[in-house]
Hints:
By secondary structure, the protein is mostly beta strands.
Amino acid sequence: xxxxxxxxxxxxxxxxxxxxxxxxxxxxxxxxxxxxxxxxxxxxxxxxxxxxxxxxxxxxxxxxxxxxxxxxxxxxxxxxxxxxxxxxxxxxxxxxxxxxxxxxxxxxxxxxxxxxxxxxxxxxxxxxxxxxxxxxxxxxxx
Length: 142
C-alpha cells in the first residue's frame, strides 16, 4: 500500500460523528484505502462495504479504537467509513492511499435505513454539517 496523504483529525467534543465518505462513486479511479489509529481519546469506527459486486455489499463492521487497546484499523478501497468520537479532545491519525478529490466524493446518510447501523449512544450523537445532507445508499449509485 502506497501512502499518498496523512491526515490528523481532532474532535473537540465527544459523541461527534464524522464520515461515511466514499470516494469515486461512479468510477474507481480515486478509491482510497485508509489506515487509522487513535493517539488521544477514543472512537468507534464503522466500515461499510460499498462494492456493488461484493457478497457483503451494504454490511458493516465496527471497532473501538483508543489509547488503551492501541488498535489500528485498515479500511480497504470500496468501503465507506465513519467514526464517532467517544471522548472530548480525541485525536485520530489517518493515512490514505489517494489524494482527496471532492469531485469524486459521496456522503452516505448517517442513519441509512437499509444499512441500519446500531449506534451505541443515539441520544448523545452530534452531526457535522456535511453529514446532515448524506444520501441514502439506494441513491448513491444513480
